[in-house]
Amino acid sequence: MEAAVWIVGLTLMALSDPWANDHYSLCLIKNSGLGFCPGCGLGHSIGFLARGEWIQSFKSHPLGIIAIIILSYRVYTIFKNTPIKTNRNEQNN
User: Fold this and answer.
1) Secondary structure element (H or E) that encloses residue 41, with its range
2) Number of domains composing the chain
3) 63: Cβ–Cβ under 8 A, 6 or more apart, which residues?
4) Mind listing the pLDDT tens digit for each residue in 21-46?
5) What span, in angstroms and rounded, lies between the C-alpha atoms of 76 and 73?
6) Calpha distance 17→85 (Å, rounded)
7) What is the average per-residue pLDDT within 64-89?
């Protein structure tokens, strides 16, 4: 389940339009009206990376590529460590 959440999240961020400024944000800090949020810009950064705009991605958030690497590695380890369930009848043959 965790891997599915990360895959869907990364996919949605990659498919979102990073140039759009008028979008709903799930950021609690931004929605509460507080100033600086260290995570804001990651979604835009991932969107720019998906389009090959490396410089704009870095300008949006310098840790965007690191976030993709870490989350991709997490998904990989989840799938690697998940045992494959097989039918018991197939094992007896």
Assistant:
1) none
2) 1
3) 42, 45
4) 655 666 777 778 776 777 778 888 88
5) 5
6) 39
7) 84
Kindly calculate the radius of gyration of the chain based on its CA atoms and give it in whole angstroms: 18
In a domain, 56, yes or no: yes
In contact, 15 and 8? CB cutoff 8 Å: no
Note the pTM of the prediction, 2 decimals: 0.68
For residue 92, being part of any structural domain is answered with no
Supply φ then ψ for residue 25, to 5 degrees: -115, 140
Picking from 36, 42, 37, the residue whose alpha carbon sits closest to that of residue 63 is 42
Given a contact cutoff of 8 angstroms between Cβ atoms, the answer to whether 64 and 42 are in contact is: yes
Of 7, 12, 21, residue with least CA distance to 47: 12
